[in-house]
Amino acid sequence: MTASTTGVPRVGSLPAGPLDSIADVAGVTVGHCTLADGAVQTGVTVIRPHGGDPYRDKVPAAATVLNGFGKSIGLVQVDELGVLETPLALTNTFSVGAVAQAQIRAAVAANPEIGRALPTVNALVFECNDGYLNDIQRMAVEGSHYEAALAGAGHDVAQGAVGAGRGMSAFGVKGGIGTASRLAGGYRVGALVLANFGTPESLTVAGRLAGPELVQRLAQPDTAAQPEKGSIIMILATDAPLDARQLRRLSLRAGAGLARTGSVFGHGSGDIAVAFSSAYTVPHDTARPMPAVAMLHETHLDPLFRAAADSVEQAILHALWHAAPVQGRDGHGRRALLDVMPELGQTA
User: Where are the transmembrane segments (predicted)?
Assistant: First the structure.
């Protein structure tokens, strides 16, 4: 069970979509597979950009690496070609290989000539290090867990200590999966984050510096005055007709929302943002015509930039508000933010 978002501070003045999640963007669905068994506290989260085959019908995309202390796979080809051709997968650092292999197997099952008559497929997996709570050396995530998350993808997006977020920490408390959306300029922008970043003293909630009080409440020497060593993955989806260059500009604005929560993209933090559009697809088959799409004019991007920043900040707060306490390996545990500072749930 995840906690309620009752009392979560509302970021900005833009309206949210009906679900207040990345699934407000047409065609986008999310699935989780959670592993919670003693020292194993981890999982997989999968974001499907549409209901079809993304290898056959690719979506335009781009990424921004705010700080590159990370082990994601597939970003080089996204940067070169500007498209996604698999779902986006999130997991822990040591499970990137297993999940990438599962992505490749799924693509080959749907298109048996991949790697033969057809080109190879670009697996796309993002990670954060959940090793404080999860016995990451066990490499417990298997291909079947990716398959389960993919099969379970839907519009009802669970948040908090679920899927890839199960073992994640943020600001010295429990982190995990968060999602939100905003409506701007006649379009929708949705964000999903894997929050595993931030030092306790830097936590900022809707413009209020809550960090110093959080440090006092935690009263744990190992959480105070430590450099930022975590990571965050930020996925942005929109139904606005943007090309890869424009989507890279949109992905960069995820950093504005991240910074508002107190992050400075520290040396040991892997902070990566990806943005994609569901407005059109790019066919793999060269015999099919390329889409004739009128892209949004550059001067109309500002509302989307604002929506990206607001939805990322809101998604991070949702991750913190939803996250239930977790006990993991070697007696390590993380408390829920609202258990430590219950008054934050009364500030909306």
Answer: none
CA count, 13 A, side-chain hemisphere, 291: 17
Cα atoms in the Cβ-side hemisphere of radius 13 Å centred on 79: 9
Q: Judge contact between 192 and 20, C-beta under 8 A.
A: no
Whether pTM exceeds 0.85? yes
Sequence-ordered alpha helix ranges (H) in the chain: 75-81, 96-110, 143-151, 211-218, 244-252, 254-260, 302-322, 337-340
Which pLDDT belongs to residue 227?
A: 76
Give yes or no for a contact between 251 and 62, defined as CB atoms under 8 angstroms apart.
Answer: yes
Residues of the chain with pLDDT under 70: 1-6, 221-225, 347-348
The identity of residue 290, as a single letter, is: M
Structure tokens at 301: 């991007």
> What is the per-residue pLDDT for 347?
57
Q: 89 and 103 in contact (C-beta within 8 Å)?
A: yes
User: What are the boundaries of each domain within the chain?
Assistant: 22-285+297-342
Residue with structure tokens 């003045």?
13
With 0-12 / 13-18 / 19 or more C-beta atoms within 10 angstroms meaning exposed / middle / buried, residue 285 is: exposed
The residues, ordered by sequence, that sit 6+ positions from 130 with a Cβ below 8 Å of its Cβ are 41, 42, 92, 93, 136, 166, 167, 168, 169, 196
Give 137-180 pLDDT, tens digit per residue: 999 999 999 999 999 999 999 999 999 999 999 999 999 999 99
Helix axes 143-151, 96-110, angle to 10 degrees: 60
Return the structure tokens found at 329: 């390996």
* Architecture of the 22-285+297-342 domain: 4-Layer Sandwich (3.60)
**How many CB atoms sit inside 10 A of residue 37's CB?**
9
Classify residue 121 by burial, with Cβ atoms within 10 Å: 0-12, 13-18, 19+. buried
Question: Helix, strand or coil for residue 20?
Answer: coil
pLDDT digits (tens, 9 = 90+) for 203-230: 999 999 999 999 999 987 655 557 777 8
